Amino acid sequence: MSPWLRVCPLDDIPRLGARVVHTEIGDIAVFRNAEDEVFALADRCPHRGGPLSQGIVFDRRVACPLHGRTIHLESGEAQAPDDGCTRKYRVRIEKGVVHLNLQS
Amino acid sequence: MRRMKLVAIGNGMAGIRTLEELLRVAPDLYEITVFGAEPHPNYNRILLSPVLAGEQRFEAIVLNDFRWYADHGITLHPGSKVTCVDRQARVVVSADGRQESYDRLLFATGSVPIRPPIPGTDLPGVLTFRDIADTQAMIEAAARHKDAVVIGGGLLGLEAANGLLARGMNVTVIHLAPWLMERQLDATAAALLQTSLEQRGLRFLLNTQAREIVADDAGRVGAVRLNDGAEVPAALVVLAVGIRPNDELARACGLHCERGIVVDDTMMTYDPRIYAVGECISHRGISYGLVAPLFEQAKVCANHLGHLGFARYTGSTVSTKLKVTGIDIFSAGHLGGDDGADEITLLDRGGAVYKKLVLKADRLIGSVLFGDTADSSWYSRLVKDETPIGELRGRLILGQPALGSSGHQGEQNAAALPDDFEVCGCNGVCKGTIVRAIKEKGLFTLDDVRKHTKASSSCGSCTGLVEQLLASVVGGAYQPRSASQTPVCECTDYTHEEVRRAIRDHELLSIPEALRFLEWRTPNGCATCRPALNYYLLCAWPGTYRDDPQSRLVNERAHANIQRDGTYSVVPRIYGGVTTPAQLRQIAEVAEKYAVPTVKITGGQRIDLLGVRKEDLPRVWADLGMPSGFAYGKSVRTVKTCVGSEWCRFGVQDSTRMGIELEQGLDRVWTPHKVKLGVSGCPRNCAESTIKDVGVVGVDSGWEIYVGGNGGTKAEVAQFLAKVALPAEAMEYTGAFLQLYREEARYLDRTSHWIHRVGLDYVKRRIVADAEGRKALYARLTEAQRDVPDPWALRVARRDPEFETISARDRYPSERNRNESMAESLPAR
Q1: pLDDT grade, residue B816 (50/70/90)?
Q2: 3-state secondary structure (DSSP) of residue B776
Q3: Is B351 helix (H, G, I), strand (E, B) or coil?
Q4: Model pLDDT for residues A12-36, shown as the tens digit of each residue
Q5: Which range among B290-299, B319-328, B700-709 has the greatest average pLDDT?
Q6: Residues of chain B neighbouring A103 (CB-CB closer than 8 A)
Q7: B142 SS3 class
Q8: A6, A23, A56 ranked by CB distance to B553: nearest
Q9: CA–CA distance from B313 to each of B284, B293, B316, B495 (Å)?
Q10: B525 interaction partners in chain A (CB closer than 8 Å)
Q11: Helix H segments across B167-286?
C-alpha cells in the first residue's frame, strides 16, 4: 500500500492560497504559492493553534490569521525572532494532481 | 563578472547600518571590506552610559559579532586605522600596512571629542567619553580614585557624571553656560534637572571655566584650576565639551569638507565614488550626533550604493533624551524664546513636572518636558509631521491622555516603573522583559521591540508606554518615526501616499502590476502590503478592479469573523437595529439547526451567531436569507441608534429612521479600517454618537454631525463637523466624509488617526465649505456602492471552493497517530 495520498488537482488549490485536508491525524494545510510550489503543514500555528490554511500566503511563507505569526512553508518553522515549529509533510505533484505523504 | 569592491572606513553604528541596509537591497553587488580603528566588532555606542553606570555588561552591547561579518562575506580589519586614501589610484592604506583598492568608498569615521585649549589635557587620568576603551578606563579609575571632575554639562557630560557617581566617586561638573544642557533645555527645565541631580549627590559649578588641569606629584592629574583661581581636586577628569566631525582623513585626500565631509541629499561626497554617513558628515551645513538621523542616512546611502537611486535624505528633526535612570527629560525642536512663537507652559515645582510647548503658525515647533515625558513621542511626531494643531491647542499641554487613551494606566513616567509592571496587556509583556530585549538585542525602533517582545504589537494601546521605555534606554537614539515617511511595509520604501498616487497616475490595475511598477523587493508582497494594495486598487478603480481574495485577511475572504478556535461568527445585517418577530424566529431556527453554541447581542446592537464551522457558512447564510452585516470587515459595520422621536418622550428627531437610511446608504463599501456610526434622537445622546467614526445627533432644528470619534483602544471624542437641517443632508455629509476618508486615509487608519494627521480644518474645508466637492465625493461613494452584490447571497448562489474541505479520513490506512486537538496544542499559561 503506497503511503502517498491523492489530495486534489493542483488547480483546485488557489495560487497564494491553501486547501484543508481532513485526515486521521488531524487537519493538514496544503499550500500553493505563486510559483506553483506546493507545501503541506499541520494546520496549526505553533503559537496558539491557529489554522494556517486560512492565512495570507506570500513567497514561501504564510502569516497565521489569528495573530500574524509568520511560518516558513518549507520548514514549518516560525520566522525569527519568533520561535516554534509546526509539523511538515511531504507533497508531490503527479500529472497535475497533488499527493500527500502522511508519514512525516 | 567581477563584483565591485566597496571599502568602508569606520566600523561603527552608521557604517555598519549602511552595510546592513545595502545587504537588504543589493546583497550580491559588492565585495565588502571594513576597516575599524577599534579592536571590537560593531557595538552599541549609546549604551556606554549604562555600562559606565554598572547597569549593563560590555558583552551585551555588541550589535554585530565577528561571526556576522563572516556570515555575510564581509572582510573586517579590526584595530586597523586607515591613514591614507589615494583617490587617483583608488586605494586605501592602513597604519598596519594593509592596502585595499575600491570601486566605491564609504566614509563613516564618526566624530572626535573636542579638547578644550587649556594646559594639562594630555595628563594621565584625563579622559574623553567616546568608546569602549574610554569607558573601561573610567571604570578602572573609579575603582581606584575618589574625586572626579567632568568638564561640560551637556548630555554626554551628565551621563558620564552620573555613571561615575554610581561607581562611588565624588563628582563635580564644571559648565561654562548659565544652565545645564543649554542647547536642549530652557532655564526652567535645567534648574529642575540640576536639583534632582544634586539630590543624588552631584556637584555643579555653572558659569565656570576650567583654566588649567594641574598634575599631582606623581605626574597624574591632581586638580582642575578654575578661572577664579580656585582648585577642585580630581584624580579623574572627563572632557565632555562637545564633539566635532572626524574629517581629517577626508581633508587629507582632498575631499571637500566644511565642518565635516560635505555630502548631498544622496550621501555622496564631491567625489562620485565616495559616500559618507554618520557623525563625520556635513549635510546642508548640519552634523548630527544622534543615532536616529544616522540610520536614516544609512538607508538613503544604501539606496544609492545599491543602484536603486531614488531615496533622498533631507535632514532630521531630532529630539533629545537623557539616559540617566529615573530622570525623565525630553526636548525636541525649538526651545522657544524667539519672536513670533507662542509658548504654552505647565509647571509644578513641587511635583517636579515641567512642560513647555512652542508653537508657530498653528504648528508645534518644539517642546521641553521634565518629569512627565509620557507624551514625548506624540509631540515629537507633531513637530516632525508639521501637523496642524487647530482644535487641539487647548488640550495640547495635557497630552494625549486628555484626548482619551486607555492602555497606559495613567502612567506618566515609564522609567520609574518596577520591572514586573505589565506594559502590554494583550501579550502579557512586562517592563523588565522589554528593557532587557532593548539592551541585549540592540533594538532601536518600535518595530524592533514589537518583533522581539510582541509588546505593542496587538492593539497598540500600550505603544506610548513602550516608546517611553525605548527612549529611556537608548535616549535620543529613539526617534519616533515620522508618520509621513513610514513605508507601507518591509517590502518597499514607498509610503502609502506614494503607492496610492502611483496606482492612480500610472493606471496600475492589479497587485502584480503594482508590485512590478513600484519595484517591490519581494515576489508577491507580504501579509501587510497585499491587503493594503488590494484596498487601494479597489478604491481607485471601482467597478472594474477584480478583488483578489488571496490578498484579503481571512475574515474578508470568508465573510465571517474567525474565532480563536478556528470557527466563525455570523452577524446578519439588521438595519438600524430594528428587527421583527419573524426575523428573530428565523435567526433562532438557524441557530438551533446548526447547533450554534453561542448567540450574543454585539456592542453594535446586532445579533451574533458564534462558533459556526467554515464549511457550514454558506448553508447558514442561505437559511438566514439576510444580507451580510459586514461585522468582519474594514467597512461600515453598524449604525447604532436610539429609539428617537417615534417613541421616546424626549426625542426630537427620528434617529432610528435616520440610522436605517445611513446603514443602507453606506452598505457594502470597503473602507481603510472599520467604520462605526451612531445616531441619537436628542442631545442626551443615548446612541453614544460622540465616540463613533461618524456620530449624528438630532436637535430640535436639525442634525449635528460629529466625526473622528473612537471608543476603543484610544478613546477619543468625535469633533463637530457641521450642522444640517434635513436627513438627506446628513446622508450627503456623512457619505462625502467617508468617501474622503476612503480616498485619502492610509489602510488601517481609523478616522481619528487620519483626522489627527490632516487636521479637522482640512476636512471641514473639503466637506463643509466646498459644496460642489462634497456632492462629487458623495456621488463617488454611491458609484462605488452601485451593483455591488451582497457577499453572502453571492456565495449562496455560486459554489465557492473557499468553503470546501477535502476529506482523506477514509483513505488513510496506516497506524493511527495521535490526534492532537487544538485545545491540547495551546501553550500552558
Answers
A1: very low
A2: helix
A3: coil
A4: 999 999 999 999 899 999 999 999 9
A5: B700-709
A6: 814
A7: helix
A8: A56
A9: 10, 9, 8, 15
A10: 58
A11: 187-200, 248-252
Q: Where are the alpha helices (DSSP H) in B259-375?
A: 291-305
Cell digits of residue B729: 443632508
- CA–CA min distance A88, chain B (Å): 15
Strand B561-562 versus strand B568-570 pairing type: antiparallel
Q: For B822, what's the count of Cα atoms within 13 Å in the CB-facing half-sphere?
A: 16
Report the residue of A23, A36, A91 to disrupt the B interface, i.e. the one with the largest count of B CBs within 10 Å: A23
Question: In chain B, what's the furthest Cα-to-Cα distance?
Answer: 103
Cell numbers of B770, please?
Answer: 466646498
Report the pLDDT value the prediction gives residue B58, as an integer from 0 to 100. 87
CB neighbour list of residue B776: distance below 8 Å, 6 or more residues apart: none
For residue B28, give the C-alpha cell: 550580491
Minimum distance, in Å, between the CA of residue A96 and any CA atom of chain B: 17
* pTM as predicted: 0.78
Contact B808 A3 (CB under 8 A): no
Q: How far apart are CA B331 and CA B476, in angstroms?
A: 9
Please judge whether A51 and B451 are an interchain contact, meaning their C-beta atoms are less than 8 angstroms apart. Answer: no
Q: Give per-residue pLDDT as tens, B720-775.
A: 999 999 999 999 999 999 999 999 999 999 999 999 888 899 999 999 999 999 99
Within 8 A by CB and 6+ apart from B55, the residues are B166, B325
Contacts of A81 in chain B (CB under 8 A): 441, 451-452
Integer Cα distance of B192 and A5 in angstroms? 74
Closest by CA position to B237, among listed B143, B137, B112? B137
Phi then psi for residue B151, to 5 deg, are -95, 110
- CB of B80 closer than 8 Å to CB of B94: yes
CB contact burial B498-508 (16+ within 10 A = b; e otherwise): ebbebbeeeeb
For B465-482, what is each residue's pLDDT tens digit?
888 888 888 877 788 777
- Chain B residues with CB under 8 Å of A23 CB are 808-809, 812
Task: Check: CB of residue B244 under 8 Å from CB of residue B114.
Answer: yes
Note the pLDDT tens digit of each residue in B518-527.
Answer: 999 999 999 9
Q: Out of B441, B527, B807, whose CB is closest to A63? A: B527
Write out the three cell numbers for B487: 513605508
Chain B contact set for A17 (CB, 8 A): 549-550
Q: What is the edge-to-edge ordering of all strands in the sheet holding B274-276?
A: B75-77, B30-35, B4-9, B104-107, B274-276
**For residue B616, what is its C-alpha cell?**
457550514
Q: What's the CA gap between B261 and B107, in Å, rounded? A: 9
Residue with cell 583654566: B211
Beta strands per DSSP E along B87-209: 91-94, 99-101, 104-107, 111-113, 126-128, 147-151, 170-174, 203-205
Q: Which residue has the cell 505589565?
A: B422
What's the grid cell of residue B539? Answer: 478604491
Yes or no: say if B194 and B204 are a contact pair by the CB < 8 Å rule: yes
C-alpha cell at B598: 453561542
Best of B436, B453, B550 to mutate (most A CBs within 10 Å, chain A): B550
